[in-house]
Amino acid sequence: MPSFDLSKKLPLNFYHQDLLTAAQKLLGKILVRKIDNSFYLYTKIVETEAYSKNGDEASHSFKGKTKSNSVMFEGGGKLYVYFTYGMYYCSNIVIGNAEQGEAVLIRAAEPLNGFDILSINRFKKNKISEKEKFNLTSGPGKLSIALNITKNENGMDLLGNEIFILDNDDIPKNDIVTSKRIGITKSKDLLWRFFIKNNPYVSKK
DNA sequence: ATCAAGATTACCT
DNA sequence: GGTAATCTTGATA
User: Which protein residues have Cβ within 7 A of any strand C atom?
Assistant: First the structure.
């Protein structure tokens, strides 16, 4: 596993750039989750989707601020976690100014260490098959289970020390695939999904 | 008070 | 390909 420099944490201004630019620049960045007050889980973001209050009916923020989506209106640099389908949590990075109601859903990431921990969180066992390995974090609900992100983490400051993102080289444009977003019924033709070409941890082919 | 929808996943044929 | 599981929330009455 490569070594990581915790001082390369993305600064606040990263979270205050254009939404679709941020969704693409988040690809390849290192999502870090601190567990047991000491161990750092590292995953590389490989798939994202953008959501906005502006012109995007699929976004939780489209109809304005409510109790459940309020973190989307707290401004860039926060973690927005929502509960869906009665079973799953999904993790988002809030982008832009508070009134913009914008966020990037982290749909999938590539595990870089701590496979035993991820495996126990996901499958309740630490010995997993090759197939299960690629099923650890290859979807927004799965990723949140593996990283133990729940409603308790909603609203967390990404400039803090529990959950944060480290800078890493941008993915070359030719290696970023753009597509329609998954699992929505409104504004479904927007090409606001981005993923790293040929990465085996992307949620769908 | 009631109800349908939902930024998903696992399992089935 | 299809669908059940599972429950919170916002909308409507």
Answer: A 63, 66-69, 83, 85-87
CA distance A146 to A37: 17
Element spanning A132, H or E: helix A130-133
Chain C positions with an atom below 7 A of a protein C-beta are 5-11
Paired tokens of A47: 């798939």
Domains and CATH numbers, chain A: 15-196 (3.10.300.10)
> Is the whole model's pTM more than 0.85, yes or no?
yes
Asked whether residue A186 carries a pLDDT value surpassing 70, the answer given is: yes
Beta strands per DSSP E along chain A: 30-35, 39-51, 79-84, 88-95, 102-111, 163-166, 176-179, 193-196
